[in-house]
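Hi all, long-time lurker, first post. I run a small reading group and we've been trying to get comfortable going from sequence to structure in the token notation. Rather than ask abstract questions, I figured I'd post a concrete chain and ask someone more experienced to write out its structure so we can walk through it together at our next meeting. Sequence below, copied exactly:
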Amino acid sequence: LIEQPAFHAALDETPDDLVSDLIDAVLTRSITQAYSGLIDYNDQIYMPALFGGTFPRFPLIKVDEFQDLSPVNHAMLDKLCRNRIIGVGDPWQNIYGFRGAKQGGMAEAQAKWKRKPCDLSISFRCPRAIVEHVHWRVPHFKWIKEGGHVEQVSKMDGVGIIDNATIICRNNAPLFRLALQLLSHNRSVSVSGTDIGPKITAIMRKLGDESLSKAQTLIAIEGWRDDKLSKQSTTANDLADCMRVFAQFGDSLGQAISYAEHLFSQKGTIRLLTGHKAKGLEYDTVYHLDPWLCGEDEQDLNLRYVITTRSKDKLFEVNSKAIQW
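-- Answer (accepted) --
Happy to help. Here is the structure in token form:
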């Protein structure tokens, strides 16, 4: 489904010749093992869709979250469908390109299967103020509930962030910094970081001995970042930003790791999560932290739309620097 140069360009780091050969060897071994009966979760879709699996062909196929389908999912649809597909999805919520969601997949399938678009244009979640605030992205969007509140906050007391509020940001580092500040003021927080948390602490443990001073830890983080950037890593800057947050709160590498582990173990009342984790969820009060982090490419424009429309009532857009303690 993809040529090797395009595949390499999509990876977090551009592989050298050795890594490229290893990737091919692992993939070949994986396919061979799948034929012998060793199947993992990815194989359950990948193998039958691309290696001759037998599919019943149905007169009607219904697909939910169509915008999130990967190219392999689309290949499976080709084998399943006899003549008709009903797909439900939102092209403006296509935000998972980094994990394989096909950009423009809904429009491509619509043309391929000659489907008629039927817009579901009324939001039953978002009141008027929220809906009008995303007309820049979805001009035809309508509302059924009046009211709502949208505010760009120029100055805010951090201690005044209300309980049971949800704070959403494009990147993790601003969330971690704000969560630690809230904890230091005896506020109750819960950070959605079941995947990023262990990844960050694992990297930090490899930076050196836990007795490293704060200054030495920051230098080690820069060294790790520069090494990853030399390999064209697309995530090194974000991960380094996250590690710096914890390093600034600790006097040593060991303390920084302890702060990280403590933060990710919290189960409090103020929720903090990224826009990607917020998709499909809804909250009464939403703070969009550092909205300027959402850029102008299609994925980021969609992400800003997703974050905004998580609110059922109040939306506050605030920059980290505007929060005072």
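A couple of things your group might point at:
The longest helix spans residues 17-35.
The radius of gyration is 23 Å.
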